[in-house]
Amino acid sequence: MEYQKLGLKSGLEIHQHLDSHKLFCSCPSEIRQDKPNIMVRRELRPLVGETGKIDPAALFEKKKRKFYIYEAYSDTTCLVELDEEPPHPVNQDALSAALLIAKMLHCEILDVAQVMRKTVVDGSDPSGFQRTMLIGMNGYIDTSFGKVGITNVILEEDAGRRIEEDKDSVTFRLDRMGIPEIEIGTAPDIKTPEQGKELAEKIGMLLRSTGKVRRGIGTIRQDVNVSITGGTRVEIKLVQELEQIPKLIEKEAERQLEIIRAGKKVPPEVRNALPDGSTKFLRPMPGAARMYPETDIPLVKIDKERLARMKIPESFEDKEKKFIKLGLSEDLAKQIVHDVRFSFIESLFSKFKNVKPSVIASAIFSIESEVKRKTGKEVKFTNEQYDEVLNLLDKGKIAKEALLDVFVDLSKGERLDDITKKFAKLSDTELKKEIEKLKAQFKDIPKEKLQGVIMGKLRGKADPKKIIELLK
Amino acid sequence: MFKVGDRVEVKTKTETFTGVVMPAPEEEKDLLILKLSSGYNVPIKLTKEISAIKIGEEKFEGLPTYRPPFKDLPFISIITTGGTITSRVDYKTGAVAPLKSADELLLTVPELHDIVNIKRIHQPFSLLSEDMSSVEWKKIAELVEQELKDDEISGVIVTHGTDILHYTAAALSFMLKNLSKPVAIVGGQRSSDRGSFDGAQNLICAAHYCKSEIAEVAIVMHATESDDYCFATRGTKVRKMHTSRRDAFRPINELPFAKIWPSGKMEIINKNFCPRRDHHAETVLDTRFESKIALLRYFPGADPEIFENLVEKGYRGIVIEATGLGHVAVNPLQKKNSWLPAIKAAVEKGILVCFAPQTIYGRLDPFVYANARLLLNAGVIFLEDMLPETAYVKLGIVLGRTKDIAQAKKLMLENISGEINKRIEPEAFLY
Question: What residue spans define the domains of chain B?
């Protein structure tokens, strides 16, 4: 398709969870799969808007007349998520992260921000609104097809998680309610479907480079806005995979074109993305003015000096280059910046000065499969386990060669203390003594075989080079 | 410089944007708050580098009117006194204004129209709960009585801020004696500008209560965290037990009269109420109130001079929230901290000294410990299971009605409006 002729215009709205506790209370940002122990039943009332008209989106939801069930956990959700206690002051860590991101996107950052209540009528927020604050405007990001405008950077709370729906009710779980998220809205500067994917990738990399965003399924979400000449702006929600973006833009442009060709008008609406790249009607586009001030929270003054002091983190491209300089292969460097454990791995490089970064990186990327090959068992080691074992290596308590054996024993559930004793690295004098002892023990073995036998006996307890040297 | 509704163009060093001027919060009057077309408000500090010019004006349309067709339903009247329940937000400006007419109330809670006809709405004043006192209680009681006189009226709803709702409920319970019709008092813990406005269910259930057989003053509020049903609880036996939850109002030492569902279903739990009667004539309005009284809470090590100061200042009656079964220090190691001499002196001066339980739940008993007997002998009035707040209101009422100390003491211990419950059911604790 000739997208230029079609007048394709597309912009993204990216929602990314920040790595901090909830935005307006002290609960952890924890998504849970176990059974909730609290259940509350609520109704939401359609509201008379500022012109006296009920918001069209609100009216649509009213027709369904459903009630809402909110599930919660006593240990990770509190009265704030349940709309039973006023919001606490804005989480300062989340605010800092959002300000940093706005700065990296070259935004004009507000002097004072006001938390707003955005009316939400689908029941996902027990309060009936989502708390949201605009912190930056009019920025940009560089792409291969030029600068793309950043319209808004917004800090807001996520809504409850839809669990199930029947004809009378919708169930939401409040584990997700209140998780701080940043919303980045771009200008409709995307002119081809492929540019959409690149832009989403670029913004995603920028967000991850801050080290202040959550990773994993459901922590980032893209909404795509699409219009063509003669059509209208349609919002597509729930895009989880970047690969989907070009197809969604393409299909939406086609869909609008078909409607126009049939001589009809494209209705402004919100549609859900389906796995095959097509979309399904979700609700009419909400009216524009659905926001009024959150009166429970005072205006938020933004500390411009603190903002000026904030350091822009290295970009992933720069990080990759730095890793290569540290002696990592290009592939390994790439693998690290794309890995969920990126910040963890990077922190190990500076923490363990006596261990080569390549040893650290290959341990983390390959040890699990090596252990599996040896034991036949699927294993998963925690960051703490990697940290503890690499620490022993760094302190010279175990030899590099013992790494695999240590992890094999760990996978069998042995205690690290015991394993360490078993593989304790010998000091030079101890090693000499041990070699003499073994030499005496195996005096009958031919000299050319002796080296192999002794190496086998001392495997993992000393540097092989040293053993050879001492045997000479 | 600008007024709310002005469309303004602002130029900073780097940006130009336009928006509509919104009201600034009271404490931030120096800021210009602009609503952008995205709906977000941007507060701006106007400095020399920033230029702002008016480029137009936004018309804020008034609220639509909603005049429902007449239905053959019982009539009620509503007295609104302020608080969140009958305030509404102007979504465009964010400003909060009280409701003015039945029409506006029906826009907020249209379901009421299927339950009752609202004959009149009075708004004698619009105050937050904590700004009220006995002056306002009198005014409300007079208006309620005036409405109840109207034979067409089947009940009255009073809407009120929630903080001191239970004091007002106690005051109306004492000021309106021998009620012939139901009087419901309701509030909201979430404001009416939210989809989660809890006051709607409270109002709906209060309207059902007004049609009920229960001729008592009752607080009608959420019974649980869910939007399922309300409790209608006696005005002298109910207390705000939580700062923010919907179900903050709990019955104390007595079960609520009824559970009321928004559908109109009603389950009577406590039959100890006066039934509706045909004639209003018997209802007695007596709003006399002595305001030179105090409610004081005893705490460990409290210096009795706190109490003596009140006596010196001429207070005519004092309710002390006593510990446990009814105690204040009588025999402490530090002799000066004993309250006994101060209380004796106050009683001799003709001051009414009452004890109410600071535990909230349960009944006082002066006979279990010797110290309490000494206090009883000194003339302290042990108010059984009366709530401290109810006790405070009752003291004002009693001293307003009589100067005779013996008579006042007798009235304090007499059950006037269900404030003393001789039989506390086991389930009434934490109900």
Answer: 6-57, 75-285, 293-413
Listed by number, the residues of chain A in 274-293 with a beta carbon closer than 8 Å to a beta carbon of chain B are: 288-293
Selecting from B43, B108, B193 the residue whose C-beta is nearest the C-beta of A112 gives B43
CA distance B228 to B263: 10
pLDDT per residue over A131-146, tens digit each?
A: 999 999 999 999 999 9
Q: Is B314 on the interface with A (CB under 8 A)?
A: no
B163 catalytic, yes or no? yes
Average pLDDT, chain A: 88
Class of domain B75-285: alpha beta
What residue spans define the domains of chain A? 3-22+86-158+184-306, 316-422, 428-471
Q: Architecture of domain B6-57 in CATH?
A: Roll (2.30)
Residues of chain A with pLDDT under 50: 50-52, 59, 62
Domains B75-285 and B293-413 equal at CATH topology level: yes
A57-77 per-position pLDDT tens digit: 554 554 557 899 999 999 999
Whether the CA torsion B134, B138, B143, B147 is positive or negative: it is positive
Nearest to A45 among B31, B94, B195 (CB): B195
Q: Is 0.90 topped by the overall pTM?
A: no
- Chains A, B: CB pairs < 8 Å: 134
- What's the N-to-C CA distance of chain A in angstroms? 74
- On the 0-12 / 13-18 / 19+ scale of CB atoms within 10 A, B372 is buried
- Return the higher-pLDDT residue of A98 and B52: A98
B84 is catalytic: yes
- Interface predicted TM-score of the whole assembly (ipTM), two decimals: 0.92
Report yes or no: B302 at the A interface, CB cutoff 8 Å.
no
User: Which CATH topology does B293-413 take?
Assistant: Rossmann fold (3.40.50)
Q: Are the beta carbons of B418 and B383 closer than 8 angstroms?
A: no
